[in-house]
Design goal:
2 copies of one chain form a homodimer. Chain A is built from 13 helices and 12 strands. By secondary structure, chain A is an alpha/beta fold. In chain A, the strands form 3 sheets. A 6-stranded parallel β-sheet of chain A has the order 2-1-3-4-5-11, with helices on both faces. In chain A, β8, α11 and β9 form a beta-alpha-beta unit. Chain A starts with 7 loop residues before the first helix and ends in a 9-residue tail after the last strand. Chain A binds a DNA duplex through α2 and α4.
Chain lengths: 341, 341
Amino acid sequence: MAKRKVSLKDISIACGVSVATVSKALNDHHDIGQETKEHIRQVAESLGYRPNAAAQALKTNRTNNIGVLFVDEANSGLTHDYFNHVLNSFKNTAEENGFDITFINGGKARINNMSYLSHAIYRGFDGVVIACVDFFDPEVDELVKSSIPVVTIDHIFYNRIAVISDNVNGMRELTEYVCSQGHKKIAYVRGVESSVTQSRLASFYKTLQEHGIDIPDEYVVIAPYRDTDAAYEATNKLLNLQDPPTCIFYPDDFAALGGINAIRERGLKIPDDVSVVGYDGLEISSRLTPKMTTIVQDSEKIGKIAATKLIDLINNPKGTLIEQIVVKGTLEPGASVKKLN
Amino acid sequence: MAKRKVSLKDISIACGVSVATVSKALNDHHDIGQETKEHIRQVAESLGYRPNAAAQALKTNRTNNIGVLFVDEANSGLTHDYFNHVLNSFKNTAEENGFDITFINGGKARINNMSYLSHAIYRGFDGVVIACVDFFDPEVDELVKSSIPVVTIDHIFYNRIAVISDNVNGMRELTEYVCSQGHKKIAYVRGVESSVTQSRLASFYKTLQEHGIDIPDEYVVIAPYRDTDAAYEATNKLLNLQDPPTCIFYPDDFAALGGINAIRERGLKIPDDVSVVGYDGLEISSRLTPKMTTIVQDSEKIGKIAATKLIDLINNPKGTLIEQIVVKGTLEPGASVKKLN
DNA sequence: TCTCTGTACTTAATCGTTTTCGTGAAATCA
DNA sequence: TGATTTCACGAAAACGATTAAGTACAGAGA
């Protein structure tokens, strides 16, 4: 199988026609005879012909390749579970439409230290999806301002299509549920600064206020997303308060594990002594005992819509509406929250 | 910023030299004057020049792009946690060496239904890494037999470089540990058929035998990897036996969650009534209470070595040794296994 | 019979690079 | 001073595909 790669030229020679004819036959142009077409295709097949993406890209300015930019504060990359769920769905949808996925990040480590935009131009990505990064990074800004089709996830730039999880309503539902269970001393281990955090935090406060609940400032503590150790520390801080909360919200389901450990180490029971609430709704949350109360973000839908919209944009740059699409999550009540009387 | 992409030609015009000279200056060839070089580079920079990957690939037959093939039985894709840890490390190492990562799979869904090999040829991948797939798939076979540099993970083809987690010694250590804690009635919820499963299963039996422990056939039950529901069912089956085991091995830490739930639903305590053992050693295992006894697979190292070896192979196809590299895991004892007296 | 219209091709340019082979001028050597 | 080497650069082909424009020929229409 060490044969040289077969090109249009090889087929043209084998068929005794010109390269142009072969190209047109393979691309089903109308000005090639039916018999010729079939013959050419047959020969192409038997020769094991495969188009050369580089040559096609060079000529057509189309790569059928989408760039993925993802950098989070912890640099968890592909191990970031919410993101990899979104990305997996994005990838599937893209592939169904004939697009491949290539990563853009890793910029800092590269030999030829390219910016995100440079990298995107270099690879000739037809479009780019940006998720979970530090959206205030000047390199991201450069990319967002470029002429490359872009879709962002969970952050809005008003000149770009954005797909965002409904953190406002999600947090509202979650908070309302906890309130409805009779909790009044509700603490929030919030994630670090980001669009997502802002939405959730604002919604958290607003909902409490609507329910006439006032919490002390010490009830809101910062811990990075997905950081069990930080959540552990934060939880200890909360439980050490003179008037500790009866329920603790965590940045996400995974970080909540750290909190759960802190609680249990003190000999406290969940939910009898302290109730616990997560966010994300990944599979793990439903497998824990007690089952975690959380918001299931529809990562499947988010990824799918992002891909669909980006591909629309690629295929019709002028005619595609710049819009912000909000994807609803669903409240998943679990035994981790106790009903107070 | 909607300027047309700038090419070598633009630079050559701006500098009043030929395209060849520009190309050579940018690639630091020796036959260009120092001053000219610097001037050209400066102009290139100021014009915002970016090389065109497609043109380069076409000319040099090098894409600096590596294909990643990953398909597991459950099609979990990027959400497969062991794999995404390996891949993340692979990706980082590849990027440090100037390579990008593009996925190969998704073949079935593609418009132009390409085989894995076709896809790899089409994209002109410099090399390919294959992990966790069904290694008996004829398409995988075709790829493995091709002339493209390949590294496989957790499965050996003897004509290819392979990086594998040391499942034999891992399972030995794990089993020995459990034996050392006094367990004799040890059950194994094993994964579905694969190289990994075979190694672990064989090692499991062998180690038990060496310790003079004989277990009934019913103690070994099949459940897919990462399938909490199946592990749940399997566990119930085991606990319903007349003489139930005192310790249960699971295919991986995540699946173990299903088993844990089954155990607790019966009002049994871990580890007092039943001990539990996982595999993988992902972060979650150390955050559970009780902490899970498991083997930490060195996914970081596996990914890194796979990338390094593949890149060696790409850069020196003839001179690189075809070898099988085994990466040791480490036993992580946890409170999930009780010491019997 | 002559023109016209399709049909089915071919020719040739082009995309952006890289690289081999020249070539002229300056520098070195005898 | 004449021959040779070195240096710095240019011309042109090539990678594999696409596509606008041109051409040859058969049959239709007048």
